[in-house]
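Tokens in:
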């Protein structure tokens, strides 16, 4: 298998001095598929092994890419391809996630309110709006505990967490690169910061608004049904709600400012690092963001982070897994760049109409369908490259195609617990707090009954 996979690519690589995607077989995508399958099934099928060895598993899949690349294309070309991805995309990606996670962890929403249908809908609306500012991870971690406290005296409250995942952990993060990892990947690839705001606000407003209306209807019915049930003593009586850790808010604003700075300031200065050219504005942006995260650790009270259940475990897991993902996707991207000449030509044909134009509805559902079970950031990147990978073209002539990819990757990450990183974190926190959450397939029933019909309507309306 190794010989069949590698030897044809070796000769062409020597001629073109780059990864020869046109000559690479589908075997090159096996490590990428294997890693994503491990991420999808590991926490469910072999939880204890995964919990202690997920970093080693990710490293093993990455090694199955790096070693064959070195054999097929030579060490200089292989190392340049891998390091270019790690230094220009992965590092900025994980630095932003780290900063948002760290800064939002110092903000505490203390106190409690009673979780009536209108109050719950209001919290979901605030969380969805907040998600595009501090990220779906940050908004989820700040608001999930207040949401649980508000509803801990209700016998039927699992649906509140389910819709929280729908709206706050996914759909709400579709308006800026800060909101959801796939959009930041697009920003790193050259998509303007406010492009998603200008081009996805209609889809987001329609989809999020319709899901919120469905929640309100369900919550009103269940709240009325609870009226005749025996009362449960409220373990967290209502108290005045206060926001602690306000010093972190200007730090969040600083993160946004640093990203806008890197988008507007182009000095044209580059630094070669291990054969990879790094632009000055990106280095400055990442340094500022890291500095703001460090400052948050200094100015935040430890008691606020403890009350939020803040630990380094989740961000460490994301950092290790995404390092493997970004390495494993290198040959897949090379194949996709080959277009109709590559091994993924059938996929290219599937999202292309007979006239040669992109099929936006197919992009929406394929990007979304894969994002439901695979991580939505690499899924977005795959379809971004499938659509040509040229950000200027995708933001202008092919704007509807990029909107379809972006909406599918962000919205449909809500279809399963594993579609987006915050989903499983919210699920775990809710179960720990005693909420009787549905299992993996029970959750899919909820998303199938609520989200899929909404996405069907949104797809035909907008794409």
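Residues out:
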């Amino acid at each position: 298998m190794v010989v069949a996979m590698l030897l044809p690519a070796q000769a062409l690589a020597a001629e073109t001095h780059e990864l020869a995607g046109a000559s690479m077989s589908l075997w090159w995508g096996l490590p990428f598929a294997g890693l994503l399958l491990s991420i999808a099934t590991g926490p469910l099928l072999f939880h204890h092994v995964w919990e202690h060895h997920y970093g080693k598993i990710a490293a093993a899949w990455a090694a199955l890419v790096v070693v064959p690349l070195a054999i097929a294309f030579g060490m200089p070309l292989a190392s340049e391809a891998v390091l270019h991805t790690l230094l220009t995309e992965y590092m900025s990606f994980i630095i932003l996630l780290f900063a948002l996670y760290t800064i939002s962890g110092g903000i505490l929403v203390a106190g409690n309110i009673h979780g009536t249908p209108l109050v719950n809908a209001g919290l979901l609306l605030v969380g969805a709006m907040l998600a595009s500012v501090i990220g779906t991870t940050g908004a989820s971690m700040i608001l999930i505990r207040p949401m649980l406290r508000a509803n801990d005296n209700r016998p039927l409250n699992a649906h509140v967490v389910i819709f929280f995942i729908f709206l706050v952990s996914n759909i709400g993060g579709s308006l800026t690169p800060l909101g959801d990892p796939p959009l930041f990947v697009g920003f790193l690839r050259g998509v303007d910061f406010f492009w998603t705001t200008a081009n996805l606000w209609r889809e987001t407003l329609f989809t999020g608004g319709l899901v919120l209306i469905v929640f309100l209807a369900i919550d009103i019915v269940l709240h009325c049904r609870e009226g005749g049930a025996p009362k449960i003593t409220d373990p967290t009586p209502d108290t005045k709600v206060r926001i602690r850790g306000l010093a972190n808010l200007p730090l969040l604003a600083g993160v946004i400012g640093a990203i806008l700075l890197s988008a507007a300031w182009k000095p044209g200065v580059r630094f070669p690092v291990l054969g990879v050219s790094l632009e000055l504005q990106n280095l400055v942006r990442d340094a500022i963001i890291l500095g703001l995260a460090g400052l948050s650790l200094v100015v935040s009270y430890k008691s606020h982070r403890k009350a939020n259940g803040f630990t380094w475990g989740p961000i460490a897991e994301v950092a290790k897994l995404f390092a493997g993902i970004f390495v494993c996707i290198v040959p897949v991207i090379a194949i996709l760049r080959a277009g109709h000449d590559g091994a993924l030509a059938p996929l290219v044909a599937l999202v292309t109409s007979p006239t040669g134009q992109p099929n936006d509805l197919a992009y929406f559902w394929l990007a979304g369908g894969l994002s439901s079970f695979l991580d939505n950031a690499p899924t977005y990147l795959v379809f971004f490259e499938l659509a040509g990978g040229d950000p200027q073209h995708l933001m202008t002539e092919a704007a509807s195609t990029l909107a379809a990819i972006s909406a599918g990757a962000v919205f449909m990450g809500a279809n399963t617990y594993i579609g987006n990183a915050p989903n499983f974190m919210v699920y775990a926190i809710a179960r720990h707090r005693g909420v009787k959450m549905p299992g993996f397939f029970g959750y899919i029933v909820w998303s199938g009954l609520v989200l899929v019909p909404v996405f069907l309507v949104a797809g035909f309306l907008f794409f």
